[in-house]
Design goal:
- It is a single chain.
- The protein has helices at about 20-35, 50-55, 70-75, 90-100, 120-130, 145-155, 165; strands at about 10-15, 40-45, 55-60, 65-70, 85-90, 105-110, 110-115, 135-140.
- Strand 6 (about 105-110) and strand 7 (about 110-115) form a beta hairpin.
- The longest helix is centred in the first third of the chain and has 16 residues, at about 20-35.
- The protein is of the alpha+beta class.
Length: about 170
């Protein structure tokens, strides 16, 4: 109903609370239409997956401090991922090899999560040279919820955010 007016600014607090998925989609389309005609929509929501889909820019606030602000792609670090999920037949052997090559790895079920993989092809090359062949390689891209938790968890504990916060556009 709010969008039936011709306002220049809409301020909405938890606008999709209680909506079913069909109405959530209709709401998202309405936001796009209103923004398309030049109006600004200020949205406050705890449903961060929805915010990620609808918003052009976001601000993350923790304990009264602005922790990060900018375009969604900047906040999510879309300049490239340095973490990949790797499926390989011998994950323990692969983890040892990749650690020797300088990457940090951890097991995630039958897969490895490899950090510091700015060139995923280098991971596959290193494994193939050792006779280990990758059957899956997936970039791990952070979502808005994981960025929010990374930034605000440190804020809630009273400690300064980690250096990763600067990667999301926040303070150091």
């Amino acid at each position: 109903a709010a969008f039936s007016t011709n306002a220049e600014l809409y301020i909405l607090d938890e606008p999709t609370s209680g909506l079913d998925p069909l109405m959530e989609k209709a709401f998202q389309q309405s936001v796009e239409e209103v923004a398309g005609r030049g109006a600004a929509v200020l949205l406050s929501s705890h449903i961060l997956a929805e915010v990620e889909q609808v918003a052009d820019t976001v601000s993350i606030i923790g304990r009264g401090h602005l922790l990060a602000s900018g375009s969604v792609s900047t906040i999510l670090g879309s300049q490239g991922t340095t973490v990949v999920r790797v499926g390989v037949s011998e994950p323990d052997r692969a983890a040892t090899l990749l650690a020797y090559e300088g990457w940090t790895t951890r097991r995630e079920g039958t897969h490895l999560v490899v950090e510091g993989a700015s060139d995923p092809a280098a991971v596959t090359r290193a494994l193939a040279l050792a006779g280990l062949y990758v059957h899956e390689l997936t970039p791990v891209v952070p979502d808005l919820e994981s960025v929010f938790l990374d930034l605000t968890t440190h804020e809630q504990l009273g400690a300064p955010p980690t250096s990763r916060a600067s990667r999301w556009g926040g303070r150091k």
